[in-house]
Specification:
This protein has 18 helices and six strands. Helix 4 packs across helix 7 and helix 10 packs across helix 18. The chain starts with a strand and ends in a 28-residue tail after the last helix. Acetyl coenzyme *A binds next to helix 17.
C-alpha cells in the first residue's frame, strides 16, 4: 500500500483541522487512516458493528460485496471451487501461494501426521452431558488443546506458530466427529490417514466398528465444496474475534476457541442450522406467505434465516456456486426430506420476487444452501455449524498467522461513547 492522498477534517466547533492519509488497497475502497484524529483533535469515531471501519491490513481475502466477488489470495472462489480441494485451499490461505507438487504432498503428509488427538483429550468428551450441543463441546475441547501441546505455544516463535496451525487444521475433524459420537454413545475411532481430509471426516462421523465403511463420493464432493466456500471470509465476526483475542498475546488454541464461540450465533455460522429449523417450522409450502409476512413486519423480530448478508448486497458468489450443487444433489438424493426441500425451493422463489427482499438486497446466502445440502446428506442438524467451524479454521489460522507478523498490530482496544452518569458522591449503605 502507498500513501496517496489526504482528507481534511475540520472541527466546526473551533475550526481546528487535521489532514488524514487516505490509504489505497490493491483493490477496493480507499480507507482513511484515522490514527491521528484523537491526538490532534481530541475526537474518536463511532461505528457500531464496524460498518465502515477497517481493523487491519490483510493480504488474504478480498470481497467486493456489490459485484459479488470473492478472492482467496487473488484467486476467484469460482476457480477454486471448480479445481481445488480443501487442503490445497488451506495451503493457499496460510502460505499465500498455490503449492508446488512437492509442497502439496508435503503439506498433506504433515496434516495427516497430526490428525490424532492426545489420548487424554478423549476424557473431556465423557465430561459433557449426553445432550450437549457439539458447538459447546468444540468451544471447550479446542480451547483445552492449549493444555496439551505446550511444545508449540510460544507465539513469538514462527516455527511454533506453524506447528500449532497444522495441529489445529488436522485435529479439528477428529474433535468435531468425537463431539457428535459422544452424544450417540458411539466409540471414538482413530482417524484413517489412508483417506483424504473430507473422506476421513465422514468416516469418523458415520463409521461403526461392526461394518466396513464405504465412502459416498456424492457426499464427499458436496462436502468438499462446502469446505472450500467457507474456508475464509476476511474480517467477519468470528475472524475478528480470533484477531481480537490474539491481540493480547493469547495462544492460538484459545483464540480459535473464541472464534468458534462467535461463529455459533444464528446471525453468523449458526444460520445453516437455523435455516433447517425454520423450514421444519414452516412445515408446508402453503404456510410460507405467513412466515414471509412475519419477516416483513416491523413489529416482529422474526427473520428469514439464510437470507441477507452484511457485505453482499447484490448476490453472494458462494451462494451462486452452491445453489447449483444443491439443486443437482436434491435431484439425486431428494427422497425422505422432499417436503422440506420443496418448502425451501418455494421460499427461495417467493422471497426473491418480493419487493421487501428485493429493495433490501436480501438474497439467499451460502448458509441457506449449505444447510439444505447437509440435511440432504443426512448430517445431524447440530453438526451444521461445526462443519462451518472446521472449514473456517483454515481462514482463522491464516488471519492469526498474518496478524502475528504485522508490525502495526497492537492490542485491540476499541473506544466508546460514554452515556452513563457523571461523577457522583458515594452514599453510605445506612443512608440509602
Ligand atoms: N429477514 C427479513 N428481514 C431482514 C433479514 C432477514 N433475514 N435480514 C435483514 N433484514 C432486514 C432488516 O430488518 C432491515 O430492514 P429495515 O431496513 O426495514 O430496518 C434490513 O433488512 C437491513 O438489515 P440489517 O440487520 O441492518 O443488515 P445487517 O447487514 O446488519 O445484517 C445479517 C446482515 C445479520 C446477515 C442479516 O441479514 C440476518 O440476520 N440474516 C439472517 C441470518 C443469516 O442468514 N445469517 C448468515 C449470514 S452469512 C454467514 O454468516 C456465512
Amino acid at each position: 500500500m502507498t500513501k496517496k492522498n489526504t482528507v481534511t477534517i475540520t472541527d466546526n466547533r473551533n475550526g481546528n483541522q487535521v489532514d488524514l492519509d487516505i490509504l489505497d488497497p490493491t483493490i477496493g475502497s480507499p480507507t482513511i487512516d484515522i490514527r491521528k484524529l484523537h491526538n490532534e483533535l481530541g475526537l474518536f469515531t463511532y461505528d457500531p458493528g464496524f460498518q465502515a471501519t477497517a481493523s487491519c491490513k490483510s493480504d488474504i481475502t478480498y470481497i467486493d460485496g456489490d459485484k459479488g466477488v470473492l478472492l482467496y489470495r487473488g484467486y476467484p472462489i469460482e476457480q477454486l471451487a471448480e479445481h481445488s480441494n480443501y487442503l490445497e485451499t488451506s495451503f493457499l490461505l496460510i502460505y499465500g501461494h498455490l503449492p508446488s507438487h512437492v509442497e502439496y504432498y508435503d503439506f498433506i503428509g504433515i496434516i495427516k501426521q497430526h490428525t490424532m488427538v492426545h489420548e487424554g483429550i478423549k476424557h473431556f468428551f465423557n465430561g459433557f452431558q449426553h445432550n450437549a450441543h457439539p458447538m459447546a463441546i468444540m468451544v471447550g475441547v479446542v480451547g483445552a488443546l492449549s493444555a496439551f501441546y505446550h511444545d508449540s505455544l510460544d507465539i513469538n516463535n514462527p516455527r511454533h506458530r506453524e506447528i500449532s496451525a497444522h495441529r489445529l487444521l488436522a485435529k479439528m475433524p477428529t474433535i468435531a466427529a468425537y463431539s457428535h459420537r459422544r452424544a450417540h454413545g458411539l466409540p471414538l475411532p482413530y482417524p484413517r490417514n489412508d483417506l483424504d481430509f473430507i473422506e476421513n471426516f465422514m468416516y469418523m462421523m458415520f463409521s461403526v466398528p461392526s461394518e466396513e465403511y464405504k465412502v459416498n463420493p456424492v457426499a464427499v464432493r458436496a462436502m468438499r465444496l462446502i469446505f472450500i466456500l467457507h474456508a475464509d471470509h476476511e474480517q467477519n465476526a468470528s475472524t475478528s474475534t480470533v484477531r481480537l483475542a490474539s491481540s493480547s498475546g493469547a495462544n492460538p488454541f484459545a483464540c480459535i476457541s473464541a472464534g468458534i464461540a462467535s461463529l455459533w450465533g444464528p446471525a453468523h455460522g449458526g444460520a445453516n442450522e437455523a435455516v433447517i429449523r425454520m423450514l421444519e417450522e414452516i412445515q408446508h409450502p402453503d404456510e410460507i406467505p405467513k412466515y414471509v409476512e412475519r419477516a416483513k413486519d416491523k413489529n416482529d423480530d422474526y427473520r428469514l434465516m439464510g437470507f441477507g448478508h452484511r457485505i453482499y448486497k447484490n448476490y453472494d458468489p458462494r451462494a451462486k456456486i452452491i445453489r447449483e450443487a444443491c439443486n443437482d444433489l436434491l435431484d439425486v438424493l431428494g427422497s425422505t426430506n422432499q417436503p422440506l426441500f420443496d418448502t425451501a425451493r418455494k421460499l427461495e422463489k417467493i422471497a426473491m420476487e418480493d419487493d421487501y427482499f428485493l429493495e433490501r438486497n436480501l438474497y439467499p446466502n451460502v448458509d441457506f444452501y449449505s444447510g439444505i445440502i447437509l440435511k440432504a446428506l443426512g448430517m445431524p442438524l447440530n453438526m451444521f455449524t461445526v462443519i462451518f467451524a472446521m472449514a473456517r479454521t483454515a481462514g482463522w489460522i491464516s488471519q492469526w498467522l498474518e496478524m502475528m507478523e504485522d508490525q502495526e498490530q497492537r492490542i485491540g482496544r476499541p473506544r466508546q461513547i460514554y452515556t452513563g452518569a457523571k461523577v457522583r458522591e458515594y452514599v453510605n449503605l445506612s443512608k440509602r
